[in-house]
Write a structure and sequence with these properties.
alpha/beta, Helicase, Ruva Protein, domain 3, single chain, Rossmann fold, binds zinc ion, Zinc Finger, Delta Prime, domain 3, five-stranded parallel β-sheet
Length: 570
C-alpha cells in the first residue's frame, strides 16, 4: 500500500509541484519554446521534488501532445514513464553506481539513439557520490553531448560536485517547501484519500517535516494506516512520539521569569511522565528559534496554530532577543552522550539559561564609573554575565523592569561578550555596581557599532581573501587585535610579531599595498593609508597610556567610565 500511495501522490505535471514556482516557470517555458538544455543540475534539500521534476521534464520533452509546456499524461510516451517502463528514460542512482565503470557504461550507450522517443533522458540522482574518475568520464559527455541526449543531474550536496560539471549544466536550486504550502498539499491529499484530519494535526506534520514534502507525505501515510479518524493533533503526536509543544512553552515561560525551582520541577515531571529528555530538548530549541523569529519580526509563529501563537507572542515579550540567542546557543550545545542521568545536561542548560554561563571569571581590573544611576541602568548589558564582583551569582533582571529605567534603545546598548578574558589588559569592568560588562578586544569581538571599521570589518576580511602575494591578506588580518582609524591612516595592531612580520612582508610590496588600499577604499568608502604595529606597550610606534590603545576602553570612557588603576599583564 505505501508504494502505491507514494506513486499516486507523485506530481504528474510541473504545476503540481509544491513550493518551486521559480523552477516550474522556467522549465515550462523551455518546453514550450523547445529550448531544452542538454544538461540540467537540480540541487536542493531532500524531499523537495528534484527527482519528480526530472521525471516530469523527461515526460514533457518526449510527450506527443504537450499542453502549455506540460506533459499530457495520456499519450503512450507519458504513460510509459508513469508506469516506470519507458525505455528511453534511464535513471541511475549514483550512490550505488559511483564507479567509473558505471559511468563508462553510460558514456558509451548514450551515443546510441533513443528507441522510440525523441530524446534519450538520463537522470543521475545523488550525483555528488560519483568518484573523481567517474566525474571525469561524465565531464567528457557533458562537453559534447549527443544531440538526442539530455542529462538531468540531481544532488543534495552540490558543493561536492566539481565546478567543471556544474558549469556545463543549467542549474536549478530547489527550496525547502514552506510549511503553509506543505499544509495545503496535505489537505488536498487528505481530501482525495478521504482522511478526516484536523488542521492542527496537518500543521504539526508540516512542521515536523522541515520543508521536505516527501517526509510530510510519509507521515501522512503512517497516520492514515495506523490512526483512528478523525485524526487529531494529539494522535499525530502519539504516533511520532512527540512532546506536547505547550509544555516546553510553559518551561520557557518559567525560564523567562527566572524561576529556577519551578522550571526544574516541571522538567522532572515531564521526564517522570515518560518524555525523553532529548525530545524535550529539541522542542525547546524549536520554540526558542520561533521566539527569535517572532522577536525579529521574521516570523509570527502561525505554524503553531492560533492558540499557541498568542502565547508565543506574549512570551517573546518577556525576552530580549540577545537572551533568546544566548539560550539557543546553550541549548544547541547540550550533549546527551555517555550520561547515566539523561536529564542532567538539560537541567544544566536550563540553569545556565537563567543564571548565565558559569565561566569562573575572576574579578578583573576595575574601571570605576562616574556616571549617573540612570545611565548605568540604561547601559546594563542584555546578555548574561559571569560572576559579579561579590562572587555571587545573579539572575537576569526582569526585562520589563529594565525597560522602565532604560533611556536608550536596546540597539544602542554596548554588546557585552561573556567570555573568560585571555589578556587582562583587554578587560574592562563596566560601569554598574551590581553587574559587570566584560568587553574584550579578542578577534571575533563584535566591536563597537557605529565605528565604520568595526561595522565593515568582516566585509573587509572577505574582500581581502584574494589579495596578497604569499599570504592571503584576509586570513592574515584575522591576527589583527585592534583596528582603528587615525586621521587618514588605518592602523592595524597585531598581537604576535610573526603575524606582523607576515603582514609587513606583504604590504612592503607596492602592488599588494595598492590593492590593499583599493579594497579598503571600496569597503570603507574613503581612501586610507595602511599602517601596522605590534600590540606592546614598549612599542615605539604607540604613544599614550596602554589603555588608550583599546577602542573598547575609549568607548567605555565615553559612557562615563573612569580608569582608576592600570596594571600590566604580569
Ligand atoms: Zn504525453
Amino acid at each position: 500500500m505505501p508504494e502505491a500511495l507514494y506513486r499516486k501522490w507523485r506530481p504528474g505535471t510541473l504545476s503540481e509541484l509544491v513550493g518551486q514556482d521559480h523552477v516550474v516557470k522556467t522549465l515550462k517555458q523551455a518546453v514550450l519554446t523547445e529550448r531544452v538544455s542538454h544538461a540540467y543540475m537540480f540541487c536542493g534539500p531532500r524531499g523537495t521534488g528534484k527527482t519528480s521534476t526530472a521525471r516530469i521534464l523527461a515526460k514533457a520533452i518526449n510527450c506527443l501532445s504537450t499542453v502549455e509546456g506540460e506533459p499530457d499524461n495520456t499519450c503512450h510516451m507519458c504513460v510509459a514513464v508513469n508506469e516506470g517502463r519507458a525505455i528511453d528514460l534511464i535513471e541511475i542512482d549514483a550512490a550505488s553506481n559511483r564507479r567509473i565503470a558505471d559511468i563508462r557504461d553510460l558514456t558509451e550507450k548514450i551515443h546510441y539513439g533513443p528507441a522510440e522517443a525523441k530524446f534519450k533522458v538520463y537522470i543521475i540522482d545523488e550525483v555528488h557520490m560519483l568518484t573523481q574518475e567517474a566525474f571525469n568520464a561524465l565531464l567528457k559527455t557533458l562537453e559534447e553531448p549527443p544531440p538526442h541526449a539530455i542529462l538531468i543531474l540531481a544532488t543534495t550536496d552540490v558543493h561536492k560536485v566539481p565546478l567543471t560539471i556544474i558549469s556545463r549544466c543549467q542549474r536549478f536550486d530547489f527550496r525547502r517547501v514552506p510549511s503553509l504550502d506543505v499544509v495545503e498539499k496535505l489537505k488536498k491529499l487528505s481530501l482525495e484519500e478521504m482522511i478526516d484530519i484536523e488542521d492542527e494535526a496537518l500543521m504539526l506534520v508540516a512542521r515536523k517535516s522541515t520543508g521536505s514534502l516527501r517526509d510530510a507525505e510519509n507521515i501522512l501515510e503512517q497516520v492514515m494506516v495506523s490512526t483512528e479518524q478523525p485524526v487529531t493533533e494529539w494522535s499525530v503526536r502519539q504516533l511520532l512520539n512527540l512532546t506536547d509543544e505547550s509544555l516546553p512553552v510553559d518551561l520557557l515561560e518559567l525560564i523567562a521569569v527566572n524561576d529556577i525551582k519551578s522550571s526544574l520541577v516541571m522538567l522532572g515531571q515531564l521526564i517522570d511522565d515518560g518524555k525523553e529528555a532529548s525530545q524535550i530538548h529539541s522542542s525547546l530549541i524549536e520554540i526558542t528559534r520561533v521566539l527569535i523569529l517572532i522577536k525579529s519580526k521574521a516570523g509570527d509563529g502561525s505554524e503553531f496554530g492560533d492558540s499557541l501563537k498568542d502565547r508565543l507572542d506574549s512570551i517573546a515579550e518577556k525576552f530580549t532577543i540577545e537572551r533568546l540567542i544566548f539560550i539557543a546557543k546553550i541549548m544547541a550545545n547540550v550533549d546527551f552522550r555517555d550520561l547515566l542521568t539523561p536529564a542532567l545536561p538539560l537541567e544544566i542548560a536550563i540553569m545556565e539559561s537563567i543564571l548565565g554561563p558559569q565561566t569562573g571569571v575572576s574579578k578583573p581590573d576595575l574601571i570605576q564609573p562616574n556616571s549617573s544611576r540612570e545611565q548605568q541602568t540604561a547601559h546594563r548589558p542584555e546578555v548574561p554575565l559571569g560572576k559579579n564582583s561579590n562572587n555571587t551569582i545573579e539572575k537576569f533582571s526582569n526585562p520589563s523592569t529594565r525597560i522602565e529605567h532604560s533611556t536608550q534603545k536596546s540597539s544602542e546598548v554596548i554588546p557585552a561578550v561573556a567570555q573568560p578574558p585571555k589578556d587582562s589588559k583587554d578587560v574592562v569592568q563596566a560601569p554598574t555596581e551590581e553587574k559587570s560588562i566584560i568587553v574584550s578586544g579578542n578577534p571575533g569581538n563584535p566591536g563597537n557599532p557605529g565605528n565604520p571599521i568595526d561595522e565593515h570589518w568582516n566585509e573587509l576580511l572577505r574582500s581581502l581573501r584574494q589579495t596578497g602575494k604569499r599570504f592571503n591578506l584576509g586570513a592574515l588580518m584575522r591576527g589583527c587585535k585592534e583596528r582603528e582609524i587615525r586621521d587618514d591612516t588605518l592602523v592595524l595592531t597585531f598581537l604576535h610579531s610573526s603575524h606582523l612580520d607576515r603582514m609587513n612582508s606583504e604590504i612592503e610590496d607596492p602592488l599588494v599595498n595598492g590593492q590593499f588600499e583599493n579594497v579598503v577604499e571600496k569597503v570603507l568608502g574613503k581612501k586610507y593609508k595602511i599602517s601596522v604595529e605590534l600590540a606592546n606597550s614598549d612599542s615605539k610606534s604607540i604613544t599614550g597610556p596602554v589603555s588608550q590603545q583599546s577602542h573598547l576602553v575609549r568607548a567605555a570612557q565615553a559612557l562615563g567610565a573612569r580608569i582608576v588603576e592600570e596594571r600590566s599583564k604580569s
